[in-house]
């Protein structure tokens, strides 16, 4: 038993040193319990995928909450933009948000405030950020930046830690081919405003560039954009594609798919494991808990935080059975078949 305890401690410290995520660099968001729970989650996954199942069950250290599930754009591969979401549309109630934060503030380190939809369409988004920030939780969200210029001052005051801005093209022609119904001048207007802020007075800014066939030639110009607007980081990301193979880049390094018999097949190995099952979850605007961000239509709901506490849902028999299936027959789960987990190449590269 003593040897097992020593192995557990050694693994915990090894994981902490080798795989510490970005949001653990700020001690404001840490407590001894949060750090313990984070290490327990990492260690539990290692044991679980190797057939062991005897450690105390960890709580998630990361969570995505959906403020809204509708958008002002019409991106052709997005279920929201193409109106293919079958679930009801709406805004998350602030009281429901606070209830969940109050329950999970002891274990949550990171909160992602986007899922399906544009977060800046929620009139209380800055209240969401402020409340999480006051409870020592790292906050971030992604935006198409069409409404960013007029709201950026309030975002800075809210205490947001990281802002991801989508820019999938450097001129209106390449940008508008995917970001349909969007005006690239609004993005550049927001970036010009952000440039005037000191880095200590604003969130970390990450520009996200989804690579398609029509914009892959612009990747080489991104370093110039980064310098011009004083951007902290640029993420060059492979795109998730459902129905438009013509969007796949020629350069295979910019695609998460391979072509087989005229069909697109994801390059990842669909192994019977997934770290997200013990580290994170997603909550839709109306309170449903789903296992990950690939369940865009909430087909695999584990419960609802309006009816039960999050911990009750997280530790429920239904969730446990879903995790068991992930570790025994993952290929049978629809949302896993387009997943980047275990992808042979990185789905995101940073400059």
Summarize the structure.
With 351 residues, this protein is α/β, with parallel strands linked by helices.
Write up this protein:
- The structure is a single chain.
- The chain is an alpha/beta fold and 351 residues long.
- Helix content is 33%, strand content 15%.
- The protein is built from eleven helices and twelve strands.
- The chain has a ten-stranded mixed β-sheet with strand order 11-10-9-1-2-3-4-5-6-12.
- Strand 2, helix 4 and strand 3 (138-143) form a beta-alpha-beta unit.
- The longest helix is centred in the first third of the chain and has 18 residues, at 32-49.
- The N and C termini lie far apart (46 Å).
Give the beta-strand count: 12
| Percent in helix | 25-40%
Low-confidence spans: none
> What is the SS-derived class?
alpha/beta
**Fraction of residues in β-strands:** 5-15%
Q: Order of strands across the biggest sheet? A: 11-10-9-1-2-3-4-5-6-12
Work out the radius of gyration.
20 Å
Task: Estimate the global geometry from the Cα principal axes.
Answer: globular
